[in-house]
Amino acid sequence: MDRALGSAPGRDYPQGGRGRGRGRGYGGRGGRGGRGRGGHRNQPYNNNRSRYNNNNNYGGRGRGNARPGNRFGAGSLANNQDPQAAMIRQVFSFVSRVGEFKNIRDSPASPETEGPQLRPVEATTAGNINDLVSVLCSEDKLDMLFRCQPSATSAIYKVEDRIGKLGHLLISCAASLPLQTPCYAALTLAVNEQIKGSEWEGFAARCVDCAMHYFATDLDVILRTGKNVAESACRMKLLLRYLAILGKIGIVQGYEEGSDQASDSNNLTVFGLLSMLVETAKIAQEGDAPATVAHLLISLALSTLPYVMEYVPQAAIGEWIISPIDALLQTYKSTFTPGTG
Fold this sequence. Notes:
Mean pLDDT: 77
Oligomer: single chain
Region (Disordered): 1-78
Largest sheet: 2 strands, antiparallel
InterPro entries: CBP80
Structural class: mainly alpha
Helix content: 40-55%
Distance between the termini: 53 Å
GO molecular function: mRNA binding; RNA cap binding
Shape: globular
Order of helices and strands: EEHHHHHHHHHHHH
C-alpha cells in the first residue's frame, strides 16, 4: 500500500504528521497537515478509525479530510458483497482450515465405540471432516460448489470450470498445505460418497484429473523454462503424496503387478507413475537435458515412497525404484573443481 507524503515547512511528514498547517475552510489548526492526529495515513489498518479520522472535514485540532476505511475490511465486504459470494468465501475458509491442529480432544473416543480406536488428532480431524461434509453437500450448496463442465476443453474453460469450485479449491489446498495432505484425501473420499447419485457425482475422479493436470503443468514449466523450480517442485511433491494416499484408501489404484512396466500413460497406477518418473530421469541423464532434471525426478519419486510402502511390495520398490536410482547415482559426476593450496 503506497504511502503519500505531505509537505510541512522545513520537513516532510506523512499526512497527519507534526506540521502546523492552516485548515481547509474555516481556519484553525489542523486540516491536512494538522498537528497530532490529523490524517488517516498513520494508522492505515486500525479498526478504531474514529479516534484518528473524524469525518469533520474542516477546522478543529487535527481533524483532516476523512477518507474511506480499508476496502478489505469486514464492513466493506458486508455492505458490497452479494450473499452468494460471501457464502462461497466462508466455505472456502472452512475448507482451507479443516485440517488445522486446533481444539484437539484430550482423549480418544470411548472404548465402546465400534471399529479401531483413533488417536485424539485423528478423531478430531474425522469429526471436522464429517461436520464440513454435511455443510458442503447440503441441498442449497450442491449446484453452487459442484457445477462443472467435465468435457469442456481447456482452451475454452478454466480448470475451475471443468472440476467445480470445491474440487479446484481442494486440489489447491492439497498442493500447498503439507501438513494437511491426509485430511484432503479423506475429504475427497467423504464428499465423493456423499454426493453419489446426484447430478454432480464423480467428484473424486475430477479431483484426480485436476491433480494430474497441475502436476503435468508444473513439470512442463520446469522442463521448458527452468523458472520457479522450487515452488513447482514443492507442489508436485505434495500432489504425488495426495495421489499416493488416494491409492491407499481406494480412490485410485495404487499398485498392480506389471503396472511398473505399463507403457500407457493414461492407465497408470500410482506406483506406475513413480517408476515412470525414474525411467524418465534415466532418459534425461543419458540425453542432453540438464543434470538437475534427473535429480528433480529422482527426488520426487523418493519423497513419495513412504506413502506407498503400505500397499506396494518391497521387491517391486527395490527392482523398479531403488536399483535404477542407485545405478543413476553411480554415474553422477560432480561439477565442482577443487582448487590448489
